[in-house]
Amino acid sequence: MIWPCVxxxxxxxxxxxxxxxxxxxxxxxxxxAPAPVAAGGTMASASAxxxxxxLRDVQPIFMGNCSRCHNQQxxxxxxxxxxxxxxxxxxxxxxxxxxxxxxTYYKEAMPVANSPESLALSEQDRLTIRDWVNAGxxxxxxxxxxGPKTKTERIALGRRLFTSICxxxxxxxxxxxxxxxxxxxxxxxxxxxxxxxIKIVVFGxxxxxxxxxxxxxxxxxxxxxxxxxxxxxxxxxYNSFGNSGFGVTPEEVSSLRSQPPAxxxxxxxxxxxx
Length: 274
Hints:
By secondary structure, this protein is mainly alpha-helical. The protein folds into two domains: about 40-135, no CATH class; about 150-255, Cytochrome c-like domain (Cytochrome Bc1 Complex, Chain D, domain 2, Orthogonal Bundle), CATH 1.10.760. The chain is about 45% helix and about 5% strand. It has helices at about 1-20, 55-65, 85-90, 90-100, 115-120, 125-135, 150-170, 190, 195-205, 225-240, 250-255; strands at about 205-210, 215-220. A two-stranded antiparallel ribbon has the order 1-2. A hairpin with a 2-residue loop joins β1 and β2. α2 packs across α6, α4 (about 90-100) packs antiparallel against α6 and α9 crosses α11. It is globular.
């Protein structure tokens, strides 16, 4: 009876050692340490594909909640709409978005407390960013564009984009913010020239603009949106807030993307990584 017990004990010891060698390391906040990262931010472990990726999950959050400061026109802060820049700054992003918000990092949380972006950023959004960083900052691929969309479908999809990206500045009602961001509701500037509106969303805009008799002098970044995305969000805006009811198609966006921006608009500079 002694030898079977000894053999069983030795088997348990060997199993424990093997398990310890194969169990992932755990960080101080009980999160599994990221797998090794290959050049360009790709994961060495195929299992990481199950986690958040930049193009599918994180970039839309940045566009909706961080782009007022972190965009292509920024001079003093990093452009988080660019993958390589966000990847290089990913640990500081995690500290500011998650650790500071939880009170475990001494620098100010981002977005700035009580700002429209901070109030709109959900805990799930913050968790997604944290998990993306912990998993190694995978770039991923954008969601598939899908087939042609009817005007009704573009309006429905555009409403989601507007809520997540545009509403922080232009407000959910489309009324904008006085002296800061022009209104989209009943906008004479928007309804006067559909092609100009498309170019502004494609290229971004800087400088003074007069909308409904009021002057605004601010900048709008160029968002990394597809032709279909731009068609969706503009179709929604044109069919909401008392506007003209125009429809915008991806083909119109594609055609205008190949043209230079309007003389009155100063395009956002291209990322140094493009």
